[in-house]
Amino acid sequence: QVQLLESGGGLVQAGGSLRLSCTASESILRPDYMRWYRQAPGKQRELVAQITASGYITYADTVKGRSTISGDNAKITVNLQMNSLKPEDTAVYYCNAQRIVAGRYNYWGQGTQVTVSS
To answer: Does the pLDDT value for residue 1 go beyond 90?
Structure first.
């Protein structure tokens, strides 16, 4: 079973930075989308940032201007650099890789905790 392995979460003070990384545990077909989601306690999971196979990037309004997603579609890696962190960024962050054409899949990471203290 393919796993997406996340790293880089932790505890940081408000205004600080973190870099989350995600990579696949084995070789898989190139994804069409690589994403970062987050879920705060008592809230629904929300999309934070997405990068497509062609390199098109979108961000949630809540992180736009403070976060940068980058990835290597061939190596199945995706990173999320988060700056100027706020307490409301506290959540479990999940990596997602999806392929919607032949050989489709939708893989998730186990989640990494990000806690921002005020």
So the answer is: no
